[in-house]
Amino acid sequence: MTINPRLSLIDASSQFYQLGWMVGTAGNLSARLPDGSFWITASGKSKGKLRESDFVRLTVAGEILDSGHPDNRPSAETSIHMAIYGLFPGAQACYHVHSIEANLVSNLAEGDSLPLPPLEMIKGFGVWEENPSVSIPVFKNYINVPQIGEDIRQRLSVTPPDVPALLIVNHGVTVWGDSIEATQRHLELAEYIFRYMVTAEKILGGRKWR
Ligand SMILES: [Zn+2]
User: Fold this and answer.
1) What's the 171 CA to ligand 1 centre distance in angstroms?
2) What does pTM read for this prediction?
3) CATH number of 6-204
4) What is the Å distance from ligand 1's center to 208 Cα?
5) Closest listed residue to residue 168, CA positions, set 183, 157, 180, 155
6) CA of residue 131 to ligand 1 center, whole Å
C-alpha cells in the first residue's frame, strides 16, 4: 500500500487522459490509505494535468478529512467509489473512466449484465478456466449519481461480480483491485476486452465468439 498514492494517481490519470478515457474533466481515480480513508480526484479538474492539491481525502462514509485546496469539492461520482470500498474491504484503489468503448459495449448488455468473450485476457482478472463464462454487471445511469452508488451497493452485496469491474449504461467503466497496480491492470484488461467486442461487432456482425 502506498502512503501517498496521489503521485501514482496523477501518473495514471495523465495516461488515461492521453488514451481518451478521461477527456474534459471526466472520470475519477481514487486510492486508499492505511487508515481506510481514500484520496480521490476533486470535481472539475482536467485529468491531463493534475497536481497533488487536486485531490480530496474522505472516509468511506463520505466525510471530508482533507480538502487538498479550499476550492476543492468531491465529485458527485465519489458515491461510486464509496460503494466499492464499502462492499470490498480489500479494494485499495478504484478507477472510473468514460471511454468510448465502455459506453458502446454497455449497450450490448443482456438484461443487466454484459457477457464477455472467453478471451485469454480474462485470466488477468484471476479467472483460470477454459472458456470462462464471465459477465460484467451493468447499471442504469442516473443524473443523481448517489442513486447509482446505492444500486451498486444493493446489487453487489447480494450478487458479487465475477470480475472486479462494472459498467454504467453510456457512462463508462469502474474497476477496483487490491493495489494501484492491480487496479490499473484491471482497467487495461477491461478496455482491451471492450475494444475487442466493438471490433467483433463490426467485423463479425454480432456476438459470434460463442
Ligand atoms: Zn462518470
Assistant:
1) 6
2) 0.95
3) 3.40.225.10
4) 30
5) 155
6) 31
